[in-house]
Amino acid sequence: MRYRAGIVGCGRIGWKLEDDPNRPKPCTHAGAYASIPNTQIVAASSRTDKSLKSFGERFGVDALYTDFNEMLEKENLDLLSVTTNPELHRDIVVKAAECGVRGILCEKPISLSLDDADDMIEACRKSGTVLMVMHNRRWNSYYVKAKELLDLGAIGELVSIFGNCQGCKPSPDWLSDREGPLLHDATHLYDIMRFFAGDIDSVVGSAEKRKHLHYGVEDTCFSHMRFKNGVSAVALVNERTSYMRFDIELQGSDGKILLGPDAEMWQVVPSKRAAGFRELEKVEFPKPEREANVYMDAIGELIHCVETGEPSRSTGEDGRAALEAIMAIYESQRRGNSPVQLPLGVRESLLLALRRENRL
Length: 360
Fold this sequence. Notes:
single chain, 2 domains, globular
């Protein structure tokens, strides 16, 4: 079967990053669809004619729309990628489910409020639509291998996680009043922590403006999470560095794994410096069996889930859980940096609540 695919949002992650010479290809939703033999991009929607024209010329698509509602009503799509700004995700996903789209791959964050996320999940549940959220490290070869090693006990029992997400916005002048670095980038961090440690029990955090006072959102965040299985995690998120950095350290009872662009591993050995003690020694991180392309693998999994009914590794509920962790950080800031127990009762955007109350 050849799947009819559509894209809403003809920007960077929709397709334009294919022109970045430093990224392995394909590196966008459209690039992946064009590389998979049993998918064909048949339609696209964007708010501007210029973006649509460039997209159509690049991928040979004639069915171009400035109104996603019209596209979804006319094109009888099997698959849809939602690559717009997150404030639009709710309306697009709900409409797509109502129009019979069988599988949706929605960019992160799933939405900007738990209320919107719940509407998306419920609409897809009612229609039988598979909803996946593109937290791409869930398909990254090194992260997948690290999860396998962790489950096999290669570093003992997982004790704690440390994560950094810094300076990752698309450009220094990128601004939004509704989506700061926590939502724009660190959603990846909180999601991948859940990938390794499971559900979060409680959160303590801060979300502040320390340098970029003209921002409508935070530029600095520290958070501590306690997971239901007893694992603890600490995360640093900021938009104050001139360099981008994303890494996560898994600390086990008998070793550690550091994941960044690549992966490194240490295991315990008898100490050479103190009798009766043990210390860490660097060992070779086992090479993954295959080098994944996260976009092709995600779309391949979307098709598999549509065909089999099996759950994906990045469900709408997973996307909601990452969003809930971030909202709990904002709520902790509202409460004077007090602990917040999950599940979180408030479903509105707590970033907007902070701004409305002049606490950010």
